[in-house]
Amino acid sequence: MPVKLTFKIDERLFIAKIRGVGTKVIPYIKSDIRDLAEWAFGEIKKRTPETSSGRTVIKDLWTIAKTATAAREQFVIANLYYDQDVLMYIEKGTPPHVITPQKLGGLLHFFIGGNEIFTRLVKHPGTPAHHMVGSVRAELRSKVDWLTKRFFDHVRRLEAMGIT
């Protein structure tokens, strides 16, 4: 099943703002991209609720993977939980809804606090939205703006010293 809830971080976040500078800031970008990716990974994990499905703690399934070419590094943060729809429910929330068995005449089966439950219907109160990815993505924008300003300030200093 393809991963639906992913978060990619690479220098394309900066391209539009640094196009005129060329390659002068690439070493700084690579270092800061790594720092941003690690920050985002930690924040997404921290903001994911302690939700579990069976024995699987969804929060523990976040991963970060780096791919690199000569020109670009990219970090992908993804959750490997098998049911990506559940991740979207946690991210965006759900309204109150009724849960019924998939098979006509069947029963729902689950555990609550160690008690085994069999029932034909559950009136679910809904799930609050946690915005673990969306909120980090929004905060990342201001961090990118700050880093871009810092890059330009550094390039200006180099140009003033005649180093560029």
Short descriptors:
9 strands, elongated, alpha+beta, 24% strand, 3-stranded antiparallel beta sheet, 4 helices, 164 residues
Descriptive overview:
With 164 residues, the chain is of the alpha+beta class. The chain has 2 domains: 6-93 and 128-160, no CATH class; 95-126, no CATH class. Helix content is 41%, strand content 24%. The protein is built from 4 helices and 9 strands. It has helices at 12-18, 26-47, 84-92, 132-160; strands at residues 6-10, 52-53, 56-57, 62-68, 73-79, 97-99, 108-112, 115-119, 122-124. The strands form 4 sheets. The chain has a 3-stranded antiparallel beta sheet. The protein has a two-stranded antiparallel ribbon with strand order 2-3. A two-stranded antiparallel sheet has the order 6-9. Helix 1 packs across helix 4 and helix 2 (26-47) runs antiparallel to helix 4 (132-160).
